[in-house]
Amino acid sequence: MSTVSCYAAHAADAPLVPHHITRREPGAQDVHIDIEFCGVCHTDIHYAKNDWGRSNYPIVPGHEIVGTVKALGAAVNDLRIGQRVAVGCFVGSCHHCSSCEADMEQYCLAGFTATYNSPSPDEGGVTYGGYSKSIVVDRHFVLTVPDNLDPAGAAPLLCAGITTYSPLKHWGVKAGMTVGVIGLGGLGHMGIKFARAMGAHTVMITNSAHKAADAKRLGADDVLLFTDAEAVAKHAGTFDFLLNTIPAPHDVTSYMNLLKVDGTMCIVGSIGPTSDLNSRPLIFGRRSIAGSLVGGIKETQEMLDFCGKHQIVSDIEVIKIDDINQAYERMQTSDVKYRFVIDIARSLS
Ligand SMILES: NC(=O)c1ccc[n+]([C@@H]2O[C@H](COP(=O)([O-])OP(=O)(O)OC[C@H]3O[C@@H](n4cnc5c(N)ncnc54)[C@H](OP(=O)(O)O)[C@@H]3O)[C@@H](O)[C@H]2O)c1
Ligand SMILES: [Zn+2]
Ligand SMILES: [Zn+2]
C-alpha cells in the first residue's frame, strides 16, 4: 500500500482541503499510474456538494485522469513504464452481463464501480478519484492516449469527450444533419467539436450571449441565443438531434419544438426529476427524449483515437490544485472556458 496526497471534500458545505488516502499495491492485472492532469467535471461538484444525496465523505473527486505508468502488475504485458495512459469515469464492472459483453460497461447490470464514491474492497471502503498523486486501476479500464495530443487538453476527453461523442455516434450524426448542442460548458464545447468533425451543421444553443464568438471559434456554424424568442421561433422544426448538457432543472419542453419530425433530444446533464414535461411536442412530431451515460471502454478508446486523428482536445484553463474551490464557484456561474484542468504533477506535493 502507498500513502498518497489528494484533495477531498469532507461535507456538502465544506471546501475541498488537502488530505491523504492509501492506494493498494498493484495486483497482477493492475496499472499504477502517476497522475499528471485531472479535468474538473460538473459531476465533481454534484458529488462534493451531495446534490444527489449519495456522497460518501470524504469525497476525492476526479474522473478525467491522464498520467504515466509507474508500475505494472505481473499479468499486464501490453503497456510499458512511462507510457501515457488515462482513466475515465469507472474502474470496474462485472464483465459478464449483457451490457459488459456488448462493451457497454457503463450500463453494467450489476452496477459499475465509479472512479470515485463507489464501494471498494480497498482501504477506506470507497473509490477515490483523480484529485490525487497516483491511482491503481485494473488494466481493462485503462486507456492509452495518442502521442500527438497535449496531455492536459486530453484529460477532459475522458468524461466530457466520451459523454458527447457516444450519443452523437449512437444517433448517427453525419453530414446533412443539423445538430444543436445546448449549454456551452465542458460537455457542450466538446459536443460542438465532435458534431462538427462528424460533418453535421452544428448550432450552439446558449443562454449566454457573450459566448457566441467563442462558440463559432470552437466550430459552431451558427449560434442560437435561447433567450431570443424570435430567433428560437425561426429555428423551430429544424434540428435532427439536440444534445442537452444543462446541469440544472429547467423546462426541457421548451426545446422540443426545435426538433424536426422524428428528431431526438438526448439529455446528458443532470436535471433531476422534472414535472413540466408536456407530451404535446412529442406527439405532434413523433419526437423522442433520451438519455446517455458516458461510454464504454472500447468506445472511449475509439474516441481518443478519433481525437488523435482529428487533432481534437479540450479548450482548457490549467489550474493549481489549491485553486479548486474557486474553479467550482466559477463553474456554478457558467464562467468556464471551457474546462478547468488541474496540474496535479506540479501543484500537489
Ligand atoms: N450523462 C453523463 O454521462 C454525464 C457525464 C458528465 C457530466 N454529466 C453532467 O452534465 C452536466 C454538465 O456538465 P459540464 O461539466 O459540462 O458542466 P459545465 O462545464 O458547468 O457547463 C454547463 C453549461 O450549461 C449551461 N447552464 C448552467 N447552468 C444552467 C442553468 N441553470 N440553466 C440553463 N443553462 C445552464 C451553461 O452554458 P451556457 O452559458 O451556454 O448557457 C454552462 O456553461 C452536469 O450535470 C454533469 O453532472 C453527465
Ligand atoms: Zn464527468
Ligand atoms: Zn456487467
Keywords:
Rossmann fold, Quinone Oxidoreductase, Chain A, domain 1, seven-stranded mixed beta sheet, binds zinc ion, binds NADP nicotinamide-adenine-dinucleotide phosphate, globular, 12 helices, alpha/beta, 349 residues, six-stranded parallel beta sheet
Write up this protein:
The protein is of the alpha/beta class. Helix content is 24%, strand content 26%. Bound molecules: NADP nicotinamide-adenine-dinucleotide phosphate and zinc ion (2 copies). The site of NADP nicotinamide-adenine-dinucleotide phosphate (NAP) has 31 residues, from helix 1, helix 4 and helix 5. Residues 93-94, 97, 99-100, 108-110 line the site of one zinc ion.
Could you give a quick summary of the protein structure above?
The chain is an alpha/beta fold. It has helices at 42-48, 98-101, 151-154, 160-170, 186-197, 212-218, 229-234, 253-256, 280-283, 297-310, 324-331, 344-347, and strands spanning 2-8, 17-23, 30-40, 65-72, 84-87, 90-92, 113-114, 134-138, 143-144, 178-182, 201-206, 222-225, 239-244, 259-267, 288-291, 316-319, 339-343. Residues 41-43, 46, 159-160, 163, 183-188, 206-208, 211, 245-248, 250, 268-270, 292-294, 331, 334, 336 line the site of NADP nicotinamide-adenine-dinucleotide phosphate.
Write the layout of secondary structure elements.
Elements: E1 2-8, E2 17-23, E3 30-40, H1 42-48, E4 65-72, E5 84-87, E6 90-92, H2 98-101, E7 113-114, E8 134-138, E9 143-144, H3 151-154, H4 160-170, E10 178-182, H5 186-197, E11 201-206, H6 212-218, E12 222-225, H7 229-234, E13 239-244, H8 253-256, E14 259-267, H9 280-283, E15 288-291, H10 297-310, E16 316-319, H11 324-331, E17 339-343, H12 344-347
Bound molecules: NADP nicotinamide-adenine-dinucleotide phosphate and zinc ion (ZN) (2 copies).
